[in-house]
Amino acid sequence: MNYSQILKKGENLLKKNNIKNPYLDTELILSKVIKKEREEILLNPNNKLNNKDIIKFKNYLIRRKKKEPIAYILGHKYFWKHKFFTNKFVLIPRPDTELVIEEALKFLPDDNSKKILDIGTGSGCILLSVLKERPKCRGTAIDISIKAINVAKTNAKLHQLENKINFINIDIDKYNSNNYDLIISNPPYINSIDLNRLDDDIKFHEPKLALSGGSDGFRNIEKVIVKSKKLLKINGKLILEIGHKQKDKSIQILKKNGFYINKLSKDLSGKDRCVVSTRL
Ligand code: GLN
Fold first, then answer.
1. For the chain, domain boundaries
2. Whose CA is nearest to atom 10 of ligand 1?
3. Torsion angles phi and psi, residue 158, rounded to 5
4. Which atom of ligand 1 is nearest to the CA of 122?
5. Tens of pLDDT along 66-113?
6. Which of 60-64, 158-162, 267-271 has the lowest mean pLDDT?
7. Is any ligand 1 atom within 6 A of the Cβ of residue 210?
8. Best CA proximity match to 126, nearest among 175, 174, 182, 205
9. Under CATH, which architecture does the 78-279 domain have?
10. Which of 18, 105, 117, 149 is the most exposed place for a label (fewest CB within 10 A)?
């Protein structure tokens, strides 16, 4: 079988199973199997696959057919300017989360060494992207999941940042080291009703721990805010990702805890997604 034939087969199988981008996903899988760029496939449609590769291709394709996200099958996802290792123990980095980076960079001057805490680091994509842009800063990444911490560490090594980050496997409730200039967090904020309505790709494959914000979706948002008040320096900033229907209550919790609201920013589809606030 050659590239173009196997692509056609793969595309048809995914299409039949209602997978959203059947051609693209098939091409990405083939490119992983043959360890070549996608351009290479386009330029050499008649190249033949060996039997080993055909079997590998089929196995990956079956995983995708069962709705496993392509980022887990490929083992990586691009976010901000970099490639991050991803597996089923971490949330797949989302483009919307890049808002947190944009806002964080505005608060971090190029030549300044600030102390940053990332609560619920997951793959580490937020903190690592910020530190790549601001080499003088240092960070702490915490996560309740040891498996997530291990992924974040792998990513730190991949991007030569392991010496700038302290990784801690702990629940935010138990973490008490303070004096941070900036806290960033994309906490799990989906409420239990919405959780059930998510696409199968997400619902059955991404970690519940990284998605679920309890019955009303605010359990972790509230935890992060209450704790940030203790861990931030006076005038320190908290940059928080929230769900698009969580603006009002998030602001209310922030104000109740002595935060000043600097800004709300919207994601790529125009939905409220990120709150910037200051600990007074
Ligand atoms: N900080 C990680 C991200 O934004 C993980 C977030 C989470 O697991 N809720 O992708």
1. 3-66, 78-279
2. 93
3. -55, -35
4. 5
5. 999 999 999 999 999 999 999 999 999 999 999 999 999 999 988 889
6. 267-271
7. yes
8. 182
9. 3-Layer(aba) Sandwich (3.40)
10. 18
